[in-house]
Design brief:
single chain; mainly alpha
């Protein structure tokens, strides 16, 4: 559910916002494509709901469908997906604005993109460690950093090379 809802929301909203900022192409064809994407997101959500209902009626115990005391509610999961989709939808319109004259070069866009990833990670990673999105008990950041320091240097090098 997370992927179609988050990516679908960002694609639909990002396309609309980008077209409002800089209209180009055939609006009818673009609107039709956005409508098809929106229908796909709705269909994926409906299938997920039906899958949950069928599993509950059939007595199937699947870990992804059973909400225990440590797992977040469906409302929380939906909220995280929708907020993530809305935030991701802002990327393409901002790139469109950055490319207008006088604007940023591709190198300038890349610099700001990487800088934003670095800054947001230093804020979000400790918060997500303390209060995990998937529920459960959080981990102290000191414990995580201690585990991080035990990883071999080659693994760190490969992760840097991989981006």
């Amino acid at each position: 559910l997370a992927f179609p809802l988050c990516i679908g929301t960002s694609m639909v909203l990002g396309t609309i916002l980008t077209y409002v900022i800089k209209p180009s192409g055939d609006a009818k064809l673009l609107g039709l494509g956005v409508l098809v994407a929106f229908c796909a997101v709705c269909l994926a959500a409906a299938m997920h709901r039906r899958k949950e209902r069928d599993a509950a009626q059939g007595g199937l115990a699947q870990t992804s469908l059973v909400v225990g005391p440590e797992e977040p509610s469906m409302a929380r999961k939906l909220l995280v997906c929708i907020v993530g989709g809305v935030l991701m939808s802002c990327w393409n319109p901002l790139v469109t604005l950055a490319e207008e004259e006088p604007g940023l070069t591709p190198y300038g866009e890349f610099f700001f993109y990487c800088s934003a990833a670095l800054v947001s990670s230093t804020v979000l990673v400790p918060l997500i460690l303390k209060w995990p999105l998937e529920g459960g008990c959080g981990k102290p950041i000191q414990e995580t950093l201690a585990q991080y320091s035990k990883v071999p240097a080659a693994a760190h090098a490969f992760s840097i090379l991989g981006g």
